[in-house]
Amino acid sequence: MGNLATIDIIIFLIYFVVVAGYGIWIYNKKKSAATGSKDYFLAEGSLTWWAIGASLIASNISAEQFIGMSGEGFFVGIAVAAYEWLAAIALIIIAVWFIPIYLKNKIYTMPQFLETRYNKSVSLIMAIFWLFLYVIVNLTSILYLGALAIDTLLGGDNLHIIMIGLLLMALLIGLGGMKVIGYTDVIQVAVLIIGGFATVYMALQIVDQRINGAAVGNAFAGFQTLINEAPQHFKLILDKPTTTTTTLAMPENLSVQKYVVLPGLAMYFAGQWIVNLNYWGCNQYITQRALGADLKTARTGILFAGFLKLFMPIIVMLPGIAAYVLYSKGHLPGFNGVKDGAYSAILGFLPTGLKGLAVAALTAAIVASLAGKVNSISTIFTLDIYKKYLKPDATEIQMVRTGRWAIIIAMFVALAFTWTDVLGIGGEGGFTFIQKYTGFISPGVFAMFLLGMFWKRTTGTAALVGVLLGFLLAIFFNSFAVDIFGKETWLYTAFTYEKLENGVVHTITEIPFLINMGWSFFFTVVVMVLISLAGPKVNPKAFAIDSTMFKVDSRTLAMIVVTVLLLTALYVRFW
């Protein structure tokens, strides 16, 4: 275990034994009950609200957050917390308005929603789309970034062994089905939060010691030091650069690079909402946790996850800012300044014992996300492709067996793509890699879901055109718009900057991808509306909606109010 002391290894092994043992106990207990496909894929009716909330967080917070978001914290600062904090509002919207529609119409998978509301063609196209996205983009990035972080912490040269180890741990949990995943996620998220907060606390103490010369570091003094030493890293809204063309020699070059990733106030009127609402509301990987529950349990679990999201930037983003301050003052001599290495650089400071807890927390996040992701892959493949097109007469046992084989195959495909980083995840920056390439399909998918839920006139033809148009528009704005229309239009401002990678200077011209997403979504909705106006006033496949579906009880309302007040306070403080 490289740089880990005996006590660190013992702490990590305790984590592994507890999670594996609990998962096996849940699995054996479950075998005596019903073991149909819905029980395997959805844990139908058996997950409590706290298990749903914990599972949502454990599945969401993974390598791209710990490594990628911490890297963006190092590079940009607190502005990247918008992804986490706006997710809390997105989860309120999902809990109040989206989940009632899913549950009333007995929706178990997102492709099933599309078939029920539109037609089989839309459903099949998106089922294949999602499988491709989950395996090639999500699984690979989680596995690569996670293994890279742990390998760096352990001293290097064990990347492939760690990849295999993470896959085997995820297989152990994933093959047990959604119930095993859901309840082991409770332990995973507890380890993740305890280990994450312990790491942040120690990082802030180190800042106080190294920067202020304190004999015994004080975490609160360390946090204040971060604000004093890097005030620009504590601005939620980035200012738009005054120049659109920069070179490495210009100080504005760095500002342009930051703005391209997080385009200030403009992103709140563009892609930021699409990212969050599509991820939390139209994503099998996430919604699957709530689709097997009743409305009250599902809502409470989702809102609980939203409340927890408010605290996630402390765990996943603050270490990156600490790394930035230490690095800028020359206190990270072994760190090369590559943003995705920031979290591992901080972990290198941790004392014996705490390092083992940090590795356990990181492993918990990675394994929980891998297991949840492959379960969603197997669910979509089995219920929406295998059962409908390959073997319509499949028995419950055959479906569960097929789901398990889908998990194994997906894992091996992900391993093949990450073995030599074929996709270049490390060079793009993990968090940005996922957001950018997911953003190619998010505008069309979210437009299709939003109009399908709340506008009864939307047609299947409009949905099919919408999902394809959204994808094509995203590619157009990303790759061709600047060449055709120029860098400055009333729709967007493109920026040209220089970036040094592996000793080579690259000149890049691009529109901020969150702006691309916003306009792709807007034009997709316009076209879908125009197409649907040619159809009947009420589409025969439209969902029946009444206002009573969206009423909330006093406890739910209280949870919403508390979350909104806390979020408001955060934005007022760091605007």
UniProtKB/TrEMBL annotation:
Keyword Transmembrane attributed: yes
Membrane topology: Multi-pass membrane protein
Bilayer-spanning residue ranges: 6-28, 40-62, 74-103, 124-147, 159-177, 189-207, 260-281, 302-327, 404-425, 437-455, 462-482, 513-535, 556-574
Pfam families xref list: SSF (PF00474)
Transmembrane helix listed as a keyword: yes
Entry-linked InterPro entries: Na/Glc_symporter_sf (IPR038377), Na/solute_symporter (IPR001734)
Signal sequence interval, chain numbering: none
Protein's cellular compartments: Membrane
Keywords of this entry: Membrane, Transmembrane, Transmembrane helix
NCBIfam families: sss
Entry's family note: Belongs to the sodium:solute symporter (SSF) (TC 2.A.21) family.
Annotated protein name in UniProt: SSS family solute:Na+ symporter
Origin organism lineage: Bacteria, Pseudomonadati, Bacteroidota, Flavobacteriia, Flavobacteriales
